Amino acid sequence: MIALIVAHFALAACAGPLVHRLGRRAFVVLALPPAAATVWAFTRWNTAASGGADTWTWEWIPDYGVTLDLRLDALSELMVLLAAGVGALVLLYCASYFTDDTPQLGRFAGNLLAFAGAMLALVLADDLITLYVFWELTTVFSYLLIGHGSEHRHSRRSALQALVVTTFGGLAMLVGFLILGQAAGTYRISAILADPPETTLAVSIAVVLVLCGALSKSAIWPFSMWLPNAMAAPTPVSAYLHAAAMVKAGVYLVARLAPAFADVPVWKPVVIVLGGATMLLGGWRALRLNDLKLVLAYGTVSQLGFLTLLAGTGNRNAALAAVAMILGHALFKAPLFLVTGIVDHAAGTRDLRKLSGVGRSLPYVAGVAVLAAASMAAVPPLLGFAAKEAAFEALLHGSAADRWALGVVVAGSALTTAYTLRFVWGAFARKRGVPDTPVHSVGPAFLAPPALLAALGLLLGPGVGWTDRLLGAYADTFLAEPDPYHLALWHGFGLALLLSAVAWAAGAVLFLGRARATRLSRRIAWPTADSVFGHLLLGQERLALQVTGFIQRGSLSVYLATTLLVMLGGQLAVLLVDTPWDGAVRPRVWDNPLQGAVAALTCAAALLCLTVRRRMKAVVLAGLTGYGTALLFVVQGAPDLALTQFCVETVAMIVFVLVLRRMPVHFQETVSTWRRATRVPVALAAAATVGVGMWVAAAARTAPPAGAAMVQEVADHGYKDVVATILVDLRAWDTMGESAVLAAAAVGVTSLIYLHRRSEGTMVQEELRGRTAWSLSAHHSSRLPLGDEAAPERSWLAAGATLAPEHRSIVFEVVARLLFHPILVLSVYLLFCAESLPGGGFVAGLVAGVALITRYLAGGRFELAEAAPLQPGLFTGLGLFISTGVGLIGLAEGTVLHAFTYYGHLPVFGKYHLSTSVLFDFGVYLLVLGVVLDIVRALGAKVDRQIERAAGVLTPDGGPEAGGPLR
Question: From the centroid of its chain, how far is CA 867?
Answer without folding.
Answer: 36
